[in-house]
Amino acid sequence: MKINTIHKGNCVEVMEKEIPNGSIDLIFADPPYNLSGNGLKWVGNKTGGDWFMVNEKWDKMTETEYLKFTKDWLNACKKVLKLNGSIYVSCTYHNIGELITVLKLLEFTPRNIITWHKNNAMPSMTRRSFTHSCEYVLFFSKGKKWTFNYSDIKKMNPDKAKDGSEKQMRDLWIMPVVQGKERIKDKTGRAAHPTQKPENLLERIILASSNKNDIVLDPFLGSGTTAVVAKRLDRKWIGIETENKYIKIAEKRLST
Ligand SMILES: C[S@@+](CC[C@H](N)C(=O)[O-])C[C@H]1O[C@@H](n2cnc3c(N)ncnc32)[C@H](O)[C@@H]1O
Fold first, then answer.
1. Measured by CB atoms within 10 angstroms of the end CB, which terminus of the chain is less buried, N or C?
2. What's the total number of domains in the chain?
3. 3 state DSSP class of 174
4. What are phi and psi of 40, to 5 degrees?
5. What is the best residue among 90, 242, 245 to mutate for testing ligand 1's pocket, by most ligand atoms within 8 Å of CB?
6. Whole-model pTM above 0.90?
7. Ligand 1 within 6 A of 70 CB?
8. Where are the alpha helices (DSSP H) in the chain?
9. What CATH number is associated with residue 159?
């Protein structure tokens, strides 16, 4: 098995053919949310600059196709994950239902639903519902002796008790959507990847649920966030991605 490498291809095929059963300690997956389709955009938005809704080929499926896709890739994840390994899956209200149902059908056990409150979320364009400002990260595990580095996570919690002492980290994480220097931009100044995740989010997940030299797999690597953070934290990593343009971005991030 090739580690510290980005595999180009469909994650289901790569996991089935190239990654041995029970070889992975931790999976972070940020799958397509299936929310593309209407090309909504807001050019001239005064609160956070121009905004473009995700509108990608890989993110457009019928409901039936999406459920099958979810079953296929989560089934492959179950195969490659070690007994007592953990899986974290990011999602929104668009796809949380399918994901929890399939995870439970595959007999993963729920540990947390982490709410990521995006404190720089943009206002509602349509003004026909409450402003969307949250994504979720589902934390499930396979087996009963999963890794959870309680003390490390308590230490890194920015939230302190009144007397300044360490506090347990809650399942509500407040952090902005990636912006500033961390956001990878293309030549025109637009975000190079539409759904780049914050490194801070991955730091918490990788520190909580893996140890040094463990193997962390991301089946939807995108711009490479999981690999960059895993490398920095002395974990081994494997990334899978279909699109060459994103592989190039990830490789560049990993080389600096
Ligand atoms: C939501 S994005 C992940 C973004 C990533 N977390 C980051 O921080 O950049 C999903 C990625 O999965 C890729 N993708 C979509 N379908 C795939 C599949 N079947 N196998 C592997 N990659 C896929 C897309 O090209 C996209 O880059």
1. C
2. 1
3. strand
4. -60, 140
5. 242
6. yes
7. no
8. 11-18, 63-80, 96-105, 150-156, 199-209, 225-232, 244-255
9. 3.40.50.150
